[in-house]
Amino acid sequence: MAVPYDSADAFLALIVPRVRAALADDRRVLVVTDPGKLRLLDEALGPDAGRIDRRDSRTWYLHPHRTLAAFHEYTRSRRTLVIGEPTWSHHNERDLREWIRYESVLNAALADAMTVVLCLYDPARVPAAVLEYQPAIHPWSLEAGGEVVSTGFVQPHDLVLNGDLTPLPAPSGRVETVRFTAQEIKGLRVTVRDYASAAGMDVNLIGSLVLSVSEIAANSVEHGAGHGMIKMWVSGREMVCEIADPGGALDDPLPGYIPPEPESPRGYGLWISRQLCDHVDLRAEDGTLRVRLHMGLGD
């Protein structure tokens, strides 16, 4: 549920009654926003402030997929009220798209949880590109007069953002190409590790990239065509690995966005890769699925 506000008084008027109602209903309450509004909320709640969990948005909203996983873990099997306000500043166009998609995916990720999510935003501070999608990614809006249905809401699996259908840019610079089958996965890990090291990637990041590539390649072997091809190159200050699987498109409408059930033997490859990598792109074209993993080289 979107919660637009334009002042501290409006923030308190909209949020405090919801928090008190949730506490009276014995719900767990998590509030993630900036320190200033956390202090305002503590003052307004008085003794009840000690009954809520609070997080600083500057450290909670660092990576959309890790944030999604954190909310999923927090709300698992709990009756919960979540109040969140991402930090929208200092993001490039690619990152903004992922944060917009994150807010949309919350509707699906927490659909089976006993959770109410209130998404705060100040229209004066939120980028225009984000404001454009607010009606599409929130089924309801909480305003001074009460809850309002969003007639423009789009289910997460149907949401198409600007740039989603744009062809992926061609690889640049020196491109290394490696073909793989099931027998070559182990050697593939060594190849990716060596390329990342030669590119100057921070040693603490290389393991995450290697794991992500091997997980996607293993998926191609087990569930795709049984073989595939990897291209690796450096673009600016990040390394890109593209895994091409001629086995075709995925049947999951939100691939890698919803965590697999703990007992499930499948569904971990893209979930893990989205957690570990800085960015993941997917395209299904001409019978080939391409998964492009981006990882910054580090400081």
Name the descriptors:
12 strands, 38% helix, Heat Shock Protein 90, 2 domains, 5-stranded antiparallel β-sheet, alpha/beta, 299 residues, Rossmann fold
Dominant shape: elongated
Distance between the termini: 38 Å
Order of helices and strands: EHEHEHHEHEHHEEEHHEEHEE
User: What is the beta-strand fraction?
Assistant: 15-25%
**What portion of residues is helical?**
25-40%
Number of domains: 2
Strand order of the largest sheet: 1-5-4-2-3
Which regions contain 5 or more consecutive residues with pLDDT less than 50? Answer: none
Instruction: Write down the overall mean pLDDT.
Output: 92
Quaternary structure type: single chain
- Mind summarizing the main beta sheet? 5 strands, parallel
Identify the CATH homologous superfamily of the largest domain: P-loop containing nucleotide triphosphate hydrolases
Number of E-type strands:
12
CATH class of the largest domain: Alpha Beta
Backbone structural class: alpha/beta
Number of helices: 10
Describe it.
The protein is α/β, with parallel strands linked by helices and 299 residues long. The protein folds into two domains: 2-158, Rossmann fold (3-Layer(aba) Sandwich), CATH 3.40.50; 176-296, Histidine kinase-like ATPase, C-terminal domain (Heat Shock Protein 90), CATH 3.30.565. It has helices at 8-24, 35-45, 57-60, 64-75, 93-109, 128-131, 134-137, 185-198, 203-223, 268-276, and strands at residues 2-4, 28-33, 53-56, 80-84, 115-121, 140-143, 146-149, 176-181, 227-235, 238-245, 279-285, 288-296. β9 (227-235) and β10 (238-245) form a beta hairpin. The longest helix has 21 residues, at 203-223. The protein is elongated and about 60 Å long. The model has no long low-confidence stretch (mean pLDDT 92).
